Amino acid sequence: MESAPVPPSGPEPVPERASDTTPSRPWPLRLLTHNIGGYVARMPSLWVEAQIVSLKRRPGQSMAFLDLRDTDAEVSMSAMAPVTTLDAAGPAVREGARVVLRVEPRFYAKRGTLSLWVQVARPVGEGELLAQVEQLKRTLAGEGLFDPARKRPLPFLPRAVGLVCGRGSAAEKDVVDNARRRWPAVRIELREVAVQGPAAVTQVGAAVAELDDVPHVDVIVVARGGGSTEDLLPFSNEALLRVVAACRTPVVSAIGHEVDTPLLDLVADVRASTPTDAARRVVPDATAELAVVTQARARAETALRQRVYRERRRLSDLRARPALTDLRGLFVERVTVLQDWRTRLRLAAGRGVRRRAESLASTLAHLRAISPAATLERGYAIVRTVPAEGQDRHVVTGPEQAPVGTTLEVALARGSLQVAVLPEDGPPAARTPGPTRTTDPTRTTDPTRTTSGPTGRTPPDDRSSP
């Protein structure tokens, strides 16, 4: 960096480079401004695009003063231009116009300000603006910001409607009046901002973002009346479009008239042709909804009446049938059937009892016929030993089981008796009958043994006969 010659101001020389300055060896302010001016003076002239925020022409003066602003950012600078330069550009160079300027940066050391000296001014043509918008449209479409799949449906009845519009504009009146005419209880969250000029993009974007953070706002309407293509350019600005695309709340675009198509219409969730159309879309018509409810109630009432009529007719047809005409006859028939079944059951039960009794009697007779008691009744007897202490009793089936002197018990049909076994060859007088016991006083003889006859035995053919 070059430095201007400085007269000696002290014993130590002033540093030539800015990086060599110290608290004890500073630059004087005049040196700093001189160096900045020299640096700016070496910058070449260049073309810039901006929007004219203000343009001041004083009568009788050859210079005009401009305030320039970037269309997409909060950046501004002042500029000066000869009146002849602006007149040569034509009437299109005015406040609010977008222009392309050839400028030369100038630094004024006395005030320490940087300004632009306008050498040539040209208005940005509509075709050029539309070309820029078309290029941005292709870019955003490639990113999917226009995709119908990302668009959110509007709520049937929002708790509150956020409205972004100009201060005291006709668009505000159209939206508010029509919305309240359709649904008188609608709640409007109004944000009045600049919808034209260099501040429009920033203010509209900030208002949309603010309403998106309000919990009870269910839909946001961005509204503006008609205007020229240049007036509607803020609603095709990339910064504003990205703010709208990032909203969580559905956004309705109501910019201009039917023929106007700013890019906001493509990014928003719903496009309304006019602010009035936006009001129609965001809130239902109370009168129409009441008519729908009334019609639905009438249809439901008619359907219910018809159903009741059909059921009553069916009931009447059922009651008119012969079976239901005389209800007593129906019960008498059922009682007759019941009595018939009772009679049948009684007869069947009697037959079953008789069959079971006959079967039981037959079984009992068979059991009696094969029982030992019946055999004893025919004159047979059972001969068993009288055991001594500690021995078991057993039936005698042969003479070898009853030696002489053995006491036997003879079981008869009615009672029993005890006999003693005598020797076969002893005289009758020498035979001493054993003790005899009987439980039947009518039976005192021993059917098994006898002393009559030469051998004292009963003939063999008499044993098996009674």
Give a description of the structure.
With 466 residues, the chain is of the alpha/beta class. It has four domains: 43-124, Nucleic acid-binding proteins (OB fold (Dihydrolipoamide Acetyltransferase, E2P)); 129-283, Succinyl-CoA synthetase domains (Rossmann fold, 3-Layer(aba) Sandwich); 285-336; 373-466, no CATH class. Helix content is 37%, strand content 19%. It has helices at residues 29-41, 83-89, 126-142, 170-182, 200-212, 238-245, 264-267, 275-282, 286-319, 322-325, 327-370, 372-377; strands spanning 46-57, 63-69, 76-82, 98-108, 113-123, 161-165, 188-192, 219-224, 251-255, 270-271, 382-385, 407-411, 416-420, 437-438. The strands form three sheets. A five-stranded mixed beta barrel has the order 1-2-3-5-4. Strands 7-6-8-9-10 form a five-stranded parallel beta sheet, sandwiched between helices. Strand 4 and strand 5 (113-123) form a beta hairpin. Helix 4 packs parallel to helix 8. Mean pLDDT is 82; it is low at 434-466.
Strands of the biggest beta sheet: in what spatial order?
1-2-3-5-4
N-C termini distance:
167 Å
Based on the coordinates given, report the CATH architecture of the largest domain.
3-Layer(aba) Sandwich
* Total domain modules: 4
Tell me the series of helices and strands, N- to C-terminal: HEEEHEEHEHEHEHEHEHHHHHEEEE
Shape: elongated
CATH level 3 topology of the largest domain: Rossmann fold
* Highest CATH level, the class of the largest domain: Alpha Beta
- Counting DSSP H or I runs of 4 or more residues, the number of helices is 12
